[in-house]
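We close this part of the discussion by returning to an individual protein. Part of our work consisted of pairing the sequence of a single chain with a tokenised description of its backbone. What the numbers capture is local backbone geometry rather than side-chain detail. The amino acid sequence and the backbone structure tokens for this protein are reproduced below.
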Amino acid sequence: MRAEDVEDAVTMLVAALEAVPDDGWSPPAGPLEWSCRDTVVHVADDLIGYAGQVAIAPPDGYAPFDVAVDPATGTAGLLRVVEAGGALLAAAVRTSPPGVRGWHPYGDSDAAGFAAMGVTEVLVHTHDITRATAPSWALPPGPCRAVLARLWPGVDPGTDPGATLLHHTGRAPLDGVPAPSRWRWHGAPA
């Protein structure tokens, strides 16, 4: 996947969540135990963390930092943190040298893999948050199909790639098959 895919996913997240009132972030995010607020901060943390993996290509772990957001921060500020994370990941993907590999527990990955991981985080967690804030929101098929192709090679996206992605990330049954309780993507390049 490309830097533009990360940027497009973050733009989608912002559009889906910008109407959440400042005091609307406390409900649980879909099936998660996290609040909607904790989930959106997690997305920003992942995007920034993945940018670090691409930028410095550590062989053995993540850089030891976490994103912290002031508890008084409202919707505009929370979304700005996600936008910053997306911009950092997109910049790292654009400027990474060919062949760069960064550590990930599911397999050392290249810049395109970290872009796909970032897009996956944005997609599934936007879905999680919108279960509480905008239940009619639906996953866009194109990006779902793209992340399935990169991170779940060999999986048929079917006629509803969003449903397939939710299944493979442990969120929903698919065609009568229960959602897996444990799941993982394949970050290593093919």
Remarks:
- The chain has one domain: 3-138.
- The mean pLDDT is 95.
- The two ends are 13 Å apart (CA to CA).
